[in-house]
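Quick one, T. Sequence first:
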Amino acid sequence: MRIGFVCYPTFGGSGVVATELGKALAAKGHELHFITYSEPARMGSLKSNMYYHEVRLSNYPLFDFQPYELILTSKMVEIAMQHRLDLLHVHYAIPHASAAVMARAILATKGLNLPIVTTLHGTDITLLGKDPAFEPVISYAINESDAVTTVSKSLKSDTLNLFGCDGKSIECIPNFICPKQYTGSPDEELRKHIAPEGQPILTHISNFRPVKRVDDVLATFIEVRKNIPAKLLLVGDGPDRSRIEKRAEELGYRDDVICIGKIKNPIEPLRISDLFLLPSETESFGLAALEAMASGVPVIASNTGGLPEVIEHGVSGFLHEVGDTQAMAKSALNILGSPLRLEAFQKQAKARSEAFHIDTVLPKYEGLYNRLVSEEGALPT
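Structure tokens:
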């Protein structure tokens, strides 16, 4: 099958999931065409059946802001016709789904059918969807898509509550892991650099936006640090990073808080971690938590959004109410308080991640694609 993939090419969850899904489909023999403004961060080397098509912004002097959605639409039409695509799979409601709906209409005037699968990842619904300026477009894009998927039951519920969806059937297909990516050995030199005396390492990975509540990450760590020697490893970058670094210094914990910024492969710091902290205001799924568990790292997280669908409370980690840093610290100390208990949680976290194996999730997408192409009629070959 020839599939067009439209996604954000960033390190964020939607871009990572879309890219890894495309790579897995290509490995099974499908022809994948990534359509976006730069090469996806997780794409890696191109294969014989995997292509990247850049959406180039113009420098037309009339526009103060480039009309990316229109340029993207034209690129979708171009690639669909040139490569005889069977369907488009777009990740994120706007501008990707709305552009795809327009592209499908243009292609229809040329006698071509192009089914659209829209996968909703989170903030396109929980943040943008609440903005009256975006709601009509998002609602239209969802209802005009041939199939809609969400990455969690929680996000499906949010979508139905916010948009109604006119009876649209929404299928929940969770995010996933590719276990072979988690088989490497920990970088002992890196661990020694972070924790030279063998202290436990608590890790947080995010884009450091307010929704991630990095103040709670620091507060939880400080409560742990008052009881045992420990290090906090912060991975990623964003608007709250410099502030939290300054806060750690003001409170006297700067030497125990290590910030390494944005990196391409977050699995490397996870391999040397003992606990993962994710006290977010909300998470539509919690891909970072799943990646931690796949690395054998138990998770302390907020009991919100899709996180309870990923983390088994008391088994692969602990879930607490948003903002309850005292309880989070207590659970962290519980896990770290005994080597045997830590080892048990590590094994249980790893075992839980297997429920989200790519081999379990991929057939769900393939089945959806096959149904759509059969119902709508593929492009002529």
